[in-house]
Model the fold of this input.
Amino acid sequence: MIAIQILNGLVYGSLLMIVASGLVLIYGLRRVVNFAHGSLFMLGAYIAYAASLQFGFGGGLLAAVAALAAVGFCLDRFGFRLLQDRDPLTVMLVTFGLLLVFEDVVQSIWGKQSYSLAAPEALQGTVDLFGSPFPVYRLAIVAVGALVAACLVGWLRYSRIGLFIRGASTDPVTTAMQGVNTDRLSGGVVAVGAALAGLAGVVSGPFLSLSPTMGSDILIDSFVVVVIGGLGSFAGAFVAAMILGQVQALGAVYLPDLAALLPFALMTAVLIWRPSGLSGSRV
Amino acid sequence: QAKEPVRIGIVNSQSGGFTAQGEDSLRGMQFAVDEANAAGGAAGRPVEVQIGDDESTPEAGRRVAEKFARSGYNLLVGPIASSISLALGQNLQRWDALYVSTLSKSDRITGDACNARMFQANHSDAMDLAIVQPWLKENAKEKRFAILANDYVWGRDSAESFTKAVQKLGKEVDVTLYAPTGTKDFAPYIAQLKNSGAEAVWVALVGRDLIAFAKQAAEFGLTTSKRIIGHAYIMNFVVKATEGATDGVWGVMNYAPEIDTPKNKAYVAAWRKKFGRDPNENEVAGYNGIQVILQGVAKADSVKPTAVAAALKGATLETVWGQATMRAEDHQLVKPNYFGRVKRVGGELRPVIETAFDASIVAATPSNCKL
Amino acid sequence: MSAIITATALEDTQVKRNPGVMRLCAMAAAAVAVGLTVNMSVTSNGLMSLLTQATIYAVFALGLGFLLKQNGMVSFGHALFFGMAGYLVGAAVTLTGWPVGMVVVLTVAAIGMFAFGLALVIVRVPGIAFGMLTLAIGQSFYVLVSKSRGFTGGADGMNINFPAQVFGMELASFQNPSSMFLICWLVLVALVLLLALLLRTGFGPLTEAIRENEERARFIGFRTLLPRAAVFAVSAMVTAVGGVLSALYTGFVSPESLHWSVSGTVLIMVVLGGSRTLWGPAVGAVVYYLFRDFVGEHTTHWMSIFGVSLIAVIVLWPAGIAGGVMRAATSLQRAAARRLA
Amino acid sequence: MTRLLKFEAVNAYYGRAHVLHDVSLHVEAGERVALVGRNGVGKTTVVNTILNLASLRGGTMQFNGRAQQGLRTYTAARAGIAVVPQGRRIIANLTIEENLLLGGAVKRPGPWNLASIYELFPILRERAHTPGTALSGGQQQMLAIGRAMMANPSLLVLDEPSEGLAPVIVDQLAVIFNRLADAGTALLLIEQNLSLITRVARRLYVMAKGSIIEEGALEGLDIEQLHKHIVV
Amino acid sequence: MSANYALEARDLSVRYGGVTANDGVSMHLAQGEIRGLIGPNGAGKSTFIDALSGRRAIAAGSVHLAGSDITALGVVERRLLGLSRSFQRTSIFPGMRIGVQMELAASKIPDADPDEVMRELGLDRLAGRVADEISYGDQRRLDIALALVGRPSVLLLDEPMAGLSVEESMKLARHLRNLARNWGVSVLLVEHDMEVVFGISDSITVLETGKLLAEGTPDEVRAHPKVREAYLGSAA
Ligand SMILES: Nc1ncnc2c1ncn2[C@@H]1O[C@H](COP(=O)(O)OP(=O)(O)OP(=O)(O)O)[C@@H](O)[C@H]1O
Ligand SMILES: Nc1ncnc2c1ncn2[C@@H]1O[C@H](COP(=O)(O)OP(=O)(O)OP(=O)(O)O)[C@@H](O)[C@H]1O
Ligand SMILES: [Mg+2]
Ligand SMILES: [Mg+2]
Done:
């Protein structure tokens, strides 16, 4: 039972991690707390839904990730880049405006009812784990999460572009002075961040549901993760996502009365203990 | 001389958490208004509506309602959330308005918060829970039950009422789990439910949480290993949003197209003609709400809220459920209620009525309202 | 010679920062006159009720804007103080039967104290994380209140049955839009005036300095924790006054008024209005309400339209509406001066 | 001879503040030019104009003989102009080695690489994997110079490089700068340390209030004489 | 040990994780004395000033101001007792007008005259400007001015001349000397401009890798072979 619960925590943690890592990327490079991130998540799910009617889950996934990358690129090109000298609060509210627009667009196209995205055939069944059936699809989420984490860490830590990204995320001007085209760089990074939001949206489709509010539901949890991790830190966000996943899974069993408060309590405790989050510095 | 038009202010959830139900119920309301206007108005009065967004919050709902009421659209109808209904109820006197609740279920609307200008046209929670015990007695062989409810007033009330009903029958509740509203991953709860010794699970979750739970319960095979009985569970929008995950789930139902009354038959036929499908429970609730107002106006032959309220009090109304009484002491519309299950009918999965309960059983609930 | 230049330069900056007391009072009187004019010229009941609520939120925005201006901190949890004020007033009125005036004063004081204590613990958290921390604290209370049962009514909200006499006035004057508008407007003007006077004291530059560079502020001899906590507490108290007004006007308070999205909306008002002046956020609130209502009336796509307009305003007017107004005013003044010369 | 950098009647602004007034100057390949002046006259603004951090709103600026339009901050580096900025601007979350690697973002061929920089400043090798900001002020200055050299620039712009450095290190810098220049790198040296200027520069611009007020050869001038020139 | 030093540090040690930046350093300042503190980059000079001013916790040792132990006191208390400092990395209030921040700095100290300090440092003409819009050198002077307000009894200056033009640094040097001679202010001057250090210091302390390398009058230090080699180079 406890093993199953830990596994459950891992599943939700992995999902959160994918969403949060996109948020961290965008925050890292543009210093933007992206309130529209939840709606990108939602947009990904809906696009995948629409495309999957034609091309199946895989097709939907690809379509959503590609479309969201394009959206992210435009967001940076026509939004964040033009606002890069503005104070972060202003840009944050711009993303809030975008959130409203995205939600309205989704509602106009797909209406207000909920939809369901079916898991791919191959991942539909269950396997026996610790003596009870466990959905294969959920295990796949953990795998996707681990893959995303590994790729991101590898990319940022060991590649040239990764070095530029880390440089630009602390000091874009100095990084540009070294000859790095920070505009193109952040266009790419925001695209990847948005694509990750989209990916998470698609992945969550089969076990949550598609509704115009699905974005705001997950947004707060991802903020909690990013802030607990220490804004802008991937390692921090990964750890925080896993902790939050466990806290919710185990809290539901052992502290049911406080379950709703646990994420907030966790965040408050961490920030009071370490005001700049789990990882004092950024990766 | 033309009669004064009926001016209705529709406070609709167009954004926020209740958008889906908001859209449905608005469709039902508009259908009723069009129908009335096509027939030459309500008792010869044209029906005019204004529609505003309550953003699913009492704050915004109150703002919109106050604006409608103060600009003459003072026959109010529409919100989903009970908190909005209660917020409106508090102000009706001040705004000189009347309010007919169509989808809010809180017992307080006809309980401690009742007032002379507020009417409950749909089934309250008490009415839903009143049929649980009789149904269990006749239909449930299970001895041990588990409960999963949202961790707030409605969920807790539902869970407690269900527990009482079970205990009265000499059966027992093994585990009661409360999940915070907004829970997205129900796996931890499902694991506990599966591990419990219960043979059936009573579920009282709100919209979004419910949909997530339904999908995940099917994913983990809970739906097939234990009987699931829902409070506000087997509704079309849930069935549609979960793609087969609700197959076989039991629960309280407030409406189904097959209800055998002349009015319902006509209504369903007209609806099919227009939309090519059956109406769902939210649409009929909206439809019914407007009908209540219009019948009140006709009976009073006035559009003044006080007059309409006086006419509705204790009135017998024609509804799709047949003749129903607007109970004088608390303004609850008393009508039959149903227990059903989700089934495949003609290739389509939808809730189907299994047992009907007469209005007399439904209405046998005390109210602390003193009107 | 240079001493004179210095002296005038200093005076000049002070005049710009803190207009003289007389001028402040004159401006307040003008603001009161504006309120009276609006009250008399608006005949539509619907518009009046909208303006009343806008003014209540203007008080809320004033509080949140003060925090942003003097502490440079964003709070996503201020709705906590707004909603809590309503619940405290409601609870006290229901349970104790004390006179409403006393209840209100106690409520605002209690919230001030609570906020001060809270701030002592949390103001160390930097930047956006602070915003998220306030969000977490606010949401925790939201969850608690929604779950609570008994007379707070849980998620359904609480009706507040005020006695017939409030502050020696008929309850009806607090619940009728036109008279309540005046009351709220006067409260708003009084609060702006009070805060402006507060900033004229050393408190203004001190908190600004702490906002700019906390470490250096300590190295020029100022303890920084208490002033920051004080700003937070003042801001919370102003917000609480807004909450009290709301409770009086509607006689109802629900957990949603504690929800972070309320704080978010008010933050929009603050930025829209411009947080560099005290009165900017209040203007933002009024504009927000009128615009939102106007758009909502004409289309169901208000979210898109509102979102796009929000972005447009923020992009075009970096310092908000107040900033735009100030800029226009100075260029007018310059033009006038040129013509004179 | 190619003109690596040429300002012609350049006017530059910060927002609405007009800081550079008709500034004309040029640096040829391999040249060693100094730019001096009191605080606040606009020396850094010259650098910022090259980097598009101050806005160029009059006159022309050329890199390698090509007029620059649609300037971006990264343009200069790609044209072979590397900058050691005033205040160093070490990137806090990168290690020392990574700061250096970042300096090599534009891959231009040349003698400078990690190994040769480490040889020049051994302390950087010692601390290669600690964060750049855990260095003392002077050590950070070395890092900033090393970072600029990683780009193998054809023109190295140094904005007060000796600030905060110990005299021995300044001596070393003089040697290093001369070595760089001997190897063909042109230098634009903005300095307050006159002894460094006399040891390195061959030509001099003096700025006052946003304009160039004097230009001339430095050959044969000693510190005292130079001082007189600047103080005018 | 004489009790009447204006400032005294005894066996001060400071560590950053594994790095020992100050290793048992002792030093004292008499009233009205200007003491130069020099040493190679990374020797621990700034760290020493951080430790004296209370910015950084010390691992061992003690700090005494006018004979009383202030080791346990915080930054604010030390400043109010007359121990003031400037910063190597400029630390000012970027968004505030220069005049206003100087007034504020003066407001905690009785009889402080911010105008005089601004005049002395040539900031008076900038009084109405916002600090982040003045040049780097002017910002450096503002940093020092903030430390000078109210004529503290002990002044710790971390490379005050860095970034200043020759003119300005000479002016500042004159001003410091005036403060020390006429007002009895004790100055600890960290500086790499040897002309200034040797020109105005009464005594000089040399640090190397966190330890005391030499101490004495300017001439003694200038003649010290190790100092010449490790630090002075051609400036000797
Ligand atoms: N925050 C820090 N974390 C770790 N090590 C540090 C930190 N700050 C300084 N150091 C190290 O401590 C030592 C002393 O540094 P300090 O800044 O005191 O030198 P300094 O004498 O002031 O040098 P400079 O003349 O270059 O300013 C150096 O080796 C430096 O790398
Ligand atoms: N961001 C800015 N906004 C407005 N004005 C500025 C800005 N930065 C600098 N200035 C002004 O531009 C002028 C030139 O500044 P600059 O930094 O180029 O001087 P500098 O010659 O480099 O001086 P220093 O020797 O002190 O570094 C100064 O008068 C300064 O006040
Ligand atoms: Mg400069
Ligand atoms: Mg130092």
About this structure: The mean pLDDT of chain A is 89. The radius of gyration of chain A is 18 Å.
